[in-house]
Every structure is written in C-alpha cells, then in structure tokens.
Design goal:
By secondary structure, the chain is of the alpha/beta class. The chain has helices spanning about 5-15, 30-35, 55-60, 75-85, 110-115, 120-130, 160-165, and strands spanning about 45-50, 65-70, 90-95, 105-110, 135-145, 170-175, 190-195. Strands 3-2-1-4-5-7-6 form a seven-stranded mixed sheet, sandwiched between helices. The longest helix has 13 residues, at about 5-15. It is globular and about 40 Å long.
C-alpha cells in the first residue's frame, strides 16, 4: 500500500534526478490564456501537484497574491523557492493533496490528475468538491490519450473523466484544447467545471 511517505520519496527522487519530462519550462499556453482573462485578483487559487509551478509564478506577477502551491515533493517546492524567493513561504504547502483542509475559489489543474494512480481519480473528484465551495471552479488540462499502466502520466478519456466529475460539478467546458504547447498538441482536454 502506498503511503504519503512513499509517494513523497518517489516524487522527490524524480525531481532530484530531473526526471520530469512533463515539465514545460514555461506557463502552459492554455492556462496563461485563461489567467489573462481573470479579473478578480483577490480570489484564493490553488495549484495542486504544482511541481515547478510556472502558473503560480505568472499569477503572482499579474497581481494574484492569494495563490497557493501544493506539492508532496519537498524538492519541487525547494526548487520553486530558489526561483521565486519573493513568493510567500506560508503559501507553499508541502503535503498530500488528500489531507488538505483549506477552501479555494479556483483550482488550476495542470498534470496533477493524470500523475495520480488512476485508482485515486474518484477520490480526487470528491476532494475537489470538498475544497471548492458551491459555484467555484476547477479549471485546467487533462491528458487525452489512452489510459496506460505505464505512467505517470497515465492518460485517459473524456468519457472516463466525466464519470468522476459529473456527480459534483456542472460541466461548463470539456473539450480538446486547440492551443496546447507544441509538445502536447492533440493530447489535452481543457476543462472548466463549476461546483454544484
């Protein structure tokens, strides 16, 4: 059975070895486009499984001061601290997402869902419904390629993903992303889900 300690060690090792092939090195273009349309800079935003958290860095630079970065890998958070020493320490959360007890106005999903063991997907949807009050949103990208036993990322399909989210969320957008980073063209779904 996987424990938080085992999972933390696994991801720490990946970041220490720079075995992070999913890392774009920049803000994901679809998420940058979404962020550029946001107007309420006071909202509390979570980026779970944030890794190098380029989206958090960008949000903060655009005046969003209530951005929280969560990762189970201490190495990822240390790397982010070195790159962004001005980012508030209290908004860097080193913990298991499933233990999180805070509430947010918006959660930005970027590779986290598809990095989790697929048997945690229904639990992920439930947890998102618990940290997002009614009418608050989960927005982001899910990988759109056949579910694989080799991962992360594990991939999956729109039909499968909807089965997890529909009990808790109103589906506003769930479609193939047209403006993905070149390394992910044709492999991403953009989602915008509103908590019921």
């Amino acid at each position: 059975m996987e424990t938080t300690k085992n999972i933390s060690e696994y991801w720490d090792d990946r970041y220490q070895r720079k075995d992070i092939g999913w890392d774009l090195g920049v803000v994901s273009p679809p998420l940058k486009n979404f962020i550029d349309q946001l107007q309420d800079t006071s909202q509390h935003i979570l980026i779970p499984g944030a890794g190098n958290a380029y989206e958090a860095e960008y949000l903060f630079s655009q005046g969003f001061k209530n951005v929280y970065v969560l990762d189970i890998a201490e190495t990822a958070l240390q790397d982010f601290r070195r790159r962004c020493p001005w980012f508030p320490e209290s908004q860097l959360l080193h913990q298991n997402f499933f233990d999180l007890q805070m509430k947010f106005d918006l959660v930005l999903e970027q590779t986290f869902f598809c990095a989790l063991n697929p048997n945690l997907r229904s639990e992920y949807a439930l947890k998102m419904s618990q940290i997002l009050p009614r009418e608050k949103s989960l927005v982001g990208l899910l990988f759109d390629f056949p579910l694989s036993e080799k991962g992360p990322p594990y991939g999956g399909s729109k039909q499968e993903y909807l089965s997890y989210f529909e009990p808790y969320f109103i589906i506003e957008t769930f479609e193939r992303e047209e403006f993905s980073h070149v390394t992910r063209e044709g492999k991403e779904l953009f989602i915008k889900l509103k908590r019921k």
